[in-house]
Write a structure and sequence with these properties.
By secondary structure, the chain is an alpha+beta fold. The protein is 28% helix and 29% strand.
Length: 436
């Protein structure tokens, strides 16, 4: 599809990866636009994930997350809600279906010709839209006007094609165009247009990850990545370069980071560094309030990070534990007696199969006066899940949609859960959320 078309009252312009409405325009990434065009061209049909991935990422290996991110971006731009969709409907275990009205009139020249009882009839103002199978189809938009054969003017799909469309009565019209060749030309034109658009047009829209981290990215100062560091050790075991099997214990002073926390640290650091943001990595014990006031703060880890506990204590959802340090919870200040988000440490250590919970939050902290992001689980798997949640568009896009629906709130806090199986966390799921 080379020209413009309408989805409801939105003007879609594939050649420049832009949609417009009421004088405002939004720029889509090329792959996002290709997904939208494919769904629009197959309006009201269920398009499987496999077909969409094959059509948009041909000869490129990608997972479902790339497609999910594109669908989330489309929904965000159109203001669509996945729970009560008006644009794209998710069909569980089947794929996606575009359910909005689509008007291709802007894409093709009007009018088509058919034969009826030996004379031709012009359908005034029609749009002829050949589907992918190459067969012509007619959509009547205005009144039908009958003309004698001598007064009929042939019309074609595109300027530059001089042959009329094949007759719809099954008879071959004179010099019927080769629709396979026509669509090959259209596909080539789309590819060239999208390639040029990628290099020429700077994106006006940003990904959900960029939008989420905007409060951190927009400050000139380096971000403080405040992580949980464990007890300091006074020795280190090193290997002999000449004989690596020989180990020597030497005196030293070390601080350690839990490897599961490192997973979240790497994810977050990569996400902000990819946007050109510098950061300073600091252990929580070596971090003071003056440093945290100098730039935006990102706090990884919960019960092993004193700053996380300090900053989350005034929030609606915060961490708590019993005196024996055997029961750990996330508490809702509005319902303090109800604590469904809890971990029994005995079960955690004995089985390594349990449900973990985490807090992911973004807000302006009253103590430091700076943007703060919390990435903290009760157990180690919860922190991994929180790091994944805050660095993937498929998780963040629905959250940002909900924040916008709540009145364009800027601060949020969510409680996440994840199933731990043999010590490995599953997908993060939102248990509760609060915006302010």
């Amino acid at each position: 599809m080379e020209g413009d078309f309408l989805i409801n009252d939105w003007l879609v312009q594939p050649q420049i990866n832009t949609i417009e409405k009421e004088g405002q325009s939004w720029h889509l990434e090329p792959k996002v636009m290709q997904v939208l065009v494919y769904l629009a061209f197959h309006r009201d049909k269920v398009c499987s994930k496999d077909k969409l991935i094959e059509a948009v990422w041909r000869d490129t290996f990608v997972g479902d997350d790339a497609l999910i991110r594109c669908i989330s971006e489309i929904r965000y731009v159109f203001g669509d809600d996945a729970r009560s969709p008006q644009i794209i409907q998710t069909i569980p275990k089947a794929g996606y279906r575009l359910i909005a009205s689509v008007n291709m009139e802007a894409d093709l020249e009007p009018a088509a010709i058919i034969h009826q009882n030996g004379s031709r009839t012009v359908l005034s103002g029609e749009v002829v839209l050949p589907p992918p199978n190459g067969k012509g189809s007619i959509a009547v938009l205005e009144e039908v006007t009958s003309l004698p054969p001598s007064e009929v003017v042939d019309h074609t799909l595109e300027e530059g094609l001089s042959s009329p469309l094949p007759a719809l009565d099954g008879k071959k019209g004179p010099e019927a165009p080769n629709l396979t060749r026509f669509w090959a030309i259209v596909v080539a034109a789309i590819f060239v247009g999208l390639t040029l658009g990628f290099f020429v047009w700077h994106p006006l829209r940003t990904s959900a990850v960029q939008r989420f981290w905007s409060s951190v990215l927009s400050t000139p100062e380096s971000a403080i990545l405040c992580v949980a560091d464990q007890n300091k050790y006074t020795f280190i075991t090193l290997r002999d370069a000449a004989d690596p099997s020989r180990q020597v214990v030497l005196n030293d002073t070390l601080s350690t980071v839990v490897i599961d926390d490192l997973d979240a640290i790497v994810r977050v650091a990569s996400a902000i560094q990819a946007q050109g943001k510098n950061y300073i990595l600091k252990g929580h014990e070596a971090t003071n309030l003056s440093e945290l006031r100098s730039g935006p703060g990102i706090y990884v880890g919960a019960f092993d990070n004193a700053w996380t506990l300090r900053l989350t204590k005034p929030l609606r959802y915060h961490f708590a534990n019993d005196g024996q340090m055997t029961q750990f919870q996330i508490v809702d200040s509005n319902h303090p007696s109800n604590t469904p988000w809890a971990i029994d440490r005995t079960q955690q250590l004995e089985t390594d199969n349990y449900k973990d919970y985490a807090i992911a939050a973004r807000f302006t902290d009253g103590m430091t006066g700076r943007p703060a992001v919390i990435v903290a689980g009760i157990g180690r798997g919860g922190t991994i899940a929180a790091g994944e949640f805050l660095t993937k568009s498929e998780h963040l896009a629905p959250l940002l949609d909900a924040m916008r629906s709540a009145g364009n709130k800027t601060n949020f806090e969510v409680v996440l859960s994840t199933q731990i199986i043999d010590g490995h966390p599953g997908t993060p799921k939102v248990e509760a959320s609060y915006f302010w």
